[in-house]
Amino acid sequence: MLSPTGIPGFDDVFKGLPKAGLVILAGGPGVGKTIFSASYLYHGATRYQEPGLYVSLAESRQEFYENMTVLGMDFERLETYGLFSFMELPTLMESSGMMFSRIMEEAEKVGAKRLVIDSMTALAQSVKSTEELRTFLHTLLLNFVKKVSCTAILIEEIPRGIETLGRGVEEFVASAVIELEQQIHNERSTRVIKIPKLRGGRLERKQALFTLDRGFKVFSYKPVRELKPVERYRPLPQPAKGFSTGMAYLNELLGGYPEGATIFFEMNPDIEHRETVPIFANVLADFIHKGKPAIIMPLTGFTSDELKTILKLYGFSEDEYASLLRIFVNKELAQECKLPYVLSFDPDNVAESIGITEEELRKESGYFPVKLINLDQIALAQEPSETLHLINHEIGKTKACGGLLVIVSRRLFEQLAEDVGSLADMHFKIERLLNVPVIYGLKPPTPILAMEIDYSKGYPQAVLTPII
C-alpha cells in the first residue's frame, strides 16, 4: 500500500511510498538526498500531521535547521508542536546494538510515522559483518517500522565511480529504492530521480526530472487542458529596458528582450503547438495590451476553433484585434475563420505581404509591430536562400526601428536554422526531457528551465523553474 509523501510533484508521478516500509535513498554527493528527506518529513508533518524523526550521524542540529530554513522549512517550529525531533547520533558508540536501540527509543518517544537515518552508509560502518547488517535491516528495523506503522528512509551514499549500493543487501530488504542523479544534457546540468523498485505500487514511469530550486520538486507531465476565458490579459511588469518575454523568470534572468532584438526559438518535433502558446502568444498579447500591433507569419498547427478559442482567452475585443493584429494562415483556414484580421498566406509574395501589412499597422497605431515568423513554413514556400535573405532584411529593419522579431523553427532546414541562429541576438532551444517541456538559452547561455503552464488567470502563463 502506498501513502502520499507530500513532496511537490512526487506523488503525481510515483503515487507515493510504501506505508510502513524501508526506503533506500541513494545518490552521490550533492544530488539532493538531504533535501528530499527533509521535504518528506516536513510535508508529512505540515500536510498530514505525521510526526517525524531525523537521525543524523554527520550534520548538527543547528546546521540542519539553518539550511532547511533557507528553503522555507521551519523545523524548529514543528519541534515546538511535537511534530518533529532531530537526533544527533555519534558514529562511534560502544556497540551497534546500542545505536539501534537509541534510534528505536527516540522514534517511539515522538510517535514517529516518518523516520530518516542519515546516513545508512555511516551507520553500516559500525556493523561488523554483512550478516549483522542484514539482521538489523530485516529483523530489527523492518519489524519495528511495521509494528508502529512508520516509514523509514535510509540515506545511502554512492561514491563517484561506484554503482552498487552499500554492501549489496540493503536494496533486497527495502520496500523501495530511490536513486538521485545529476546528468549532463547539452553541456547543462539536469537532475533525475529514478525508482527501480517500488513494492505495493505500479510504476507507469520509473524516472522524472527534479529540481532543488526553493526545495525538492519533481516535474510531472500535465497535458494542455481546454481553456475558458476568465479575465482580460494582464501583462507582467515591464522590464527597465526592452520588452517583456511573457515569462516572469526569463524577465528576471535576462531583463527582458532588448529593443531592436531578434529572438530565435528552435523547437523539437515532440513539442505540441498548444504548449508554445504561453511562450509566444503572451509576447504578442503584451504588445496588443499596450496598443501596439503584432503580425504572425504564417500560423500553423491550429484548427479554426482552436485559433478562435486562443484569441478569446486574452479578453481583447474584436475591434482591438482588427486594428492591431494580423495573422496569416493557409487559404482554407482563413476561409473557415472568417475574421478580418486572419488573412490568407501567399507563399509567392511573402516579403511584400510583410512589408505592406507592417506599414498599414504602423500608420494606424503609430508603432512598429512585433513580428512572429515561422521560418520553416516560409522556407517551404521559397528557396532557403531567399528565406535567409528575407530574414536578414527583417533583422536589419527590426534593429533600425527598435522593434522585436521572434523567429520559430523546428529545424526542417538545418543549415538555414544554423544561419538564423548565428544572426539572432538571442537563441533558445525548446524540447522535452523525461516528458517535461524545457527551455534553455544557447545565446546567452542559461540553465535548463522546466516549463509548467499556469491557468489561474484563464489565459496560459509559462512558469519556468531552473533545474539546479
Kindly describe this structure.
This protein has 468 residues and is of the alpha/beta class. It folds into 2 domains: 2-218, Rossmann fold, CATH 3.40.50; 248-466, 3-Layer(aba) Sandwich (Rossmann fold). It has 17 helices and 21 strands. A 10-stranded mixed beta sheet has the order 15-14-13-16-17-12-18-19-20-21, with helices on both faces. A 9-stranded mixed beta sheet has the order 5-4-6-7-3-8-9-10-11, sandwiched between helices. Strands 1-2 form a two-stranded antiparallel ribbon. Helix 11 (304-313) crosses helix 13 (331-337) and helix 15 packs across helix 16. The radius of gyration is 28 Å and the shape is elongated.
Give the overall form. elongated
Overall residue-averaged pLDDT value: 90
CATH architecture of the largest domain: 3-Layer(aba) Sandwich
**Quick one: biggest sheet?**
10 strands, mixed
Spatial extent as radius of gyration: 28 Å
Fraction in helix: 25-40%
How many structural domains are formed by the residues? 2
By CATH, the topology of the largest domain is Rossmann fold
Topology summary:
Layout: E1 2-3, H1 10-14, E2 17-18, E3 22-27, H2 33-48, E4 52-56, H3 61-70, H4 75-80, E5 84-88, H5 96-110, E6 114-118, H6 120-124, H7 130-148, E7 151-157, H8 170-173, E8 176-185, E9 188-198, E10 207-211, E11 217-218, H9 248-254, E12 261-267, H10 277-289, E13 294-297, H11 304-313, H12 318-324, E14 325-329, H13 331-337, E15 342-344, H14 350-365, E16 370-374, H15 375-381, H16 384-401, E17 404-409, H17 414-423, E18 426-433, E19 436-443, E20 449-454, E21 461-466
Parallel strand pairs: 3-7, 3-8, 4-5, 4-6, 6-7, 12-17, 12-18, 13-14, 13-16, 14-15, 16-17
Antiparallel strand pairs: 1-2, 8-9, 9-10, 10-11, 18-19, 19-20, 20-21
Helix pairs in contact: 11-13, 15-16, 16-17
